[in-house]
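Pilot study result, target chain (202 residues):
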Amino acid sequence: MKFAHPVYILATLALTFTSCTAEETEPDSKLLGTYDLLYMTLKMNTTITSDTSEGRKKTIYLYDYATQENTGTFTIRPDRIFADSIGYRINTIVKVSDYYNDVAENTQELEMIPPPFEGITMSGTYQLIGEDSLYASSGLISTYNTANPARIGMPYGTRFFWSGDTLTFYHRTDTLQHLDAPGNPRTRRSVALFSTRYLKRK
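Predicted structure:
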């Protein structure tokens, strides 16, 4: 059984971004340059809860994957960032567990293989916040936006860290939605960690 990509399932994701300091800084020369995309990851827990006169039903979706067949480059200049020809595939299993009044009823694993994502290109201005955070008008890449065309080009913030010549960007989201319907009030909470890893060219 095939399963739709989680970013299509979620109607909205509220970005939680907290920097170490509110002070804007100039670009570090170490950041400037061109990078090859290594891969992106997503770890997400989505819980849909509904309360009825008979009790509480809860369904939990667990996502944990790294993208495959990654292509494209990311460039950081003093005043702009550029993502060029980004592409990747997702081939993973989603674990789905059902609970009734907090008692496990059923668990299944669903295959998730959406069509490949190809040729994603964008750019934008950015600001460094402190020593480990960045906010961009556009151009940042993760499955948060590349898997949802409506989010491509939208601004958001991220944090980053180095490991040798490898640069990793990451950000978290925590969203609660009310999906009220006559006779079936529901809530959906999604907690996610997105990351993107690049290798800097020499």
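One observation from the pilot: Confidence is low (pLDDT under 50) at residues 1-22. A full batch analysis is planned for the follow-on phase.
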